[in-house]
Design a protein that fits this description.
about 280 residues, alpha/beta, TIM Barrel, DNA polymerase, domain 1, 2 domains, 7-stranded mixed beta sheet, 7 strands, globular, binds adenosine monophosphate, binds manganese (II) ion
């Protein structure tokens, strides 16, 4: 049986392992096909691919794009994209520039709480200085002693309605799907169970994603509970989406699932790799 893990992060975004270390760990965990899907950046792919090749593991070129849909943030994973494609490369650059501006505003908010040097502090955790995110701030806030761990940061700070949160307009769903399609990839709605949408809002998102040419949704993800898997399996079948599987691994011991340690897809789902 081939073990797929089609959602993971390295130091090219907010993961803790370098692309090489990530690929090595995935192979050691028994993964046969790994997608590296860093947030809004493709710069880790060549290093991950080289290590995967050494270990006889297939590496899928991926990316996780931040999107604003109806005033909330949604993530779409692109799989099997051409990392050189100019439209995708340019689009992602726009999201990264937005991240840098948002980071300045976040640091200003944290300063109001008495947290000093949050911008410089967060950047010390960014393996890729061109990609700054909330996780880097969260790790700094743990170091600073404000909270005991990253998980707690995302309960008390940096999230909507809590101190340190800054709203940001990411790419539109339509734009992100265009970039992925132009770059030859398949688009996958990431961790749909994480958005805390009601039934109608979720169906609106799935309908719009379908109309815009979305290909798949994550049914099995480190973000879904065992109960959520059949719910999203049913939605995948109903909306005729392919189904994807990914851990969303960021770091050993930072919550989330281990690479490759995932439930199997319910048999009623058509796996996304059938379209490859
Ligand atoms: P950003 O894209 O910079 O807004 O940051 C989003 C990232 O924050 C996600 O990809 C996760 O890595 C991290 N994150 C969000 N919520 C949580 C949470 N509750 N626990 C741990 N990490 C989280
Ligand atoms: Mn992340
Ligand atoms: Mn995500
Ligand atoms: Mn992710």
């Amino acid at each position: 049986m081939t073990v797929y893990d089609l959602h993971s992060h390295s130091t090219a975004s907010d993961g803790i392992l370098s692309p090489r270390e990530l690929a090595k760990r995935a192979a050691e965990q028994g993964v046969n096909v790994l997608a590296l899907t860093d947030h809004d950046d493709l710069c880790g792919l060549s290093e991950a691919r080289a290590e995967a090749a050494n270990r006889g593991m297939e590496l899928v070129a991926g990316v996780e794009i931040s999107i604003t849909w109806r005033n909330t943030t949604v993530h779409v994973v692109g799989l099997r994209v051409d990392p050189e494609h100019e439209i995708l490369v340019q689009g992602l650059r726009g999201n990264r520039e937005g991240r840098a501006l948002r980071a300045q505003l976040m640091a200003a908010e944290l300063e109001k709480l008495g947290v000093r040097d949050a911008l410089a502090g967060a950047y010390t955790y960014a393996g890729n200085k061109d990609l700054i995110g909330r996780t880097h701030f969260a790790r700094y806030l743990v170091e600073y002693g404000l909270v005991k761990d990253v998980k707690t940061v995302f309960k008390k700070y940096l999230v909507k309605g809590k101190p340190g949160y800054v709203h940001h307009e990411w790419a539109s769903l339509a734009d992100a799907l265009t970039w992925i399609r132009e770059a030859g990839g398949l688009s996958v709605l990431a961790h749909p169970g994480r958005y805390h949408f009601g039934r109608e809002r979720m169906r609106d998102l799935l309908r719009e994603f379908k109309e815009l040419g979305g290909d798949a949704i994550e049914v099995v993800t480190g973000s879904h509970t065992a109960d959520q898997v059949p719910v999203f399996a049913d939605l995948a079948v109903e909306f005729d989406f392919l189904a994807s599987v990914g851990s969303d691994f960021h770091a050993p011991g930072e919550g989330g699932r281990e690479l490759g340690r995932l439930m199997t897809l319910p048999p009623r789902c058509r796996p996304v790799w059938e379209a490859w």
